Amino acid sequence: xxxxxxxxxxxxxxxxxxxxxxxxxxxxxxxxxxxxxxxxxxxxxxxxxxxxxxxxxxxxxxxxxxxxxxxxxxxxxxxxxxxxxxxxxxxxxxxxxxxxxxxxxxxxxxxxxxxxxxxxxxxxxxxxxxxxxxxxxxxxxxxxxxxxxxxxxxxxxxxxxxxxxxxxxxxxxxxxxxxxxxxxxxxxxxxxxxxxxxxxxx
Length: 202
Fold this sequence. Notes:
It is a single chain. The chain is mainly α. It has a domain at 7-117. It contains 8 helices and no strands. The chain has helices spanning 2-5, 8-24, 29-32, 34-57, 70-80, 87-117, 129-133, 138-201. The longest helix is centred in the C-terminal third of the chain and has 64 residues, at 138-201. It starts with a helix and ends with a helix.
């Protein structure tokens, strides 16, 4: 029964003061400044809703009192002392206080979640991603990079040597072809010379 009723109590701590203060107001602040009044108590309600969500997700108990309730408390005390200050200014203070408190709370929760999950808020780290994944392997990667440079130098030297080998092979092939041509010419000449010699003897 308490688990069902527990979310109602924080909301009652917001709704009841909101209604009582609007009814007891001597300056009729709800009728004269409805947007400001709704914004102020809307910020408190948003804060209570966020705290309920966090308490439900973390399966932890939620304290009923909240820093955001200082705003309605100021309005209530001001009415108790017969509007010692103009209620319009107190209402402005209430709205600003509750807004700053809500932003502070949401920021704190977001940063705690990001810190726990090791993620960044409103940022997808595409450039640092390889650096983050290879933090432990930076020295080997660096070493590998040097090896890669050596390999590239070796490859360059290898390509030079290959081109040199190809050039030498082409020169050898050309010289072999020239020598074979020369040999065939010499054979033809020797055959022709032998035929002339035989003809002369006959």
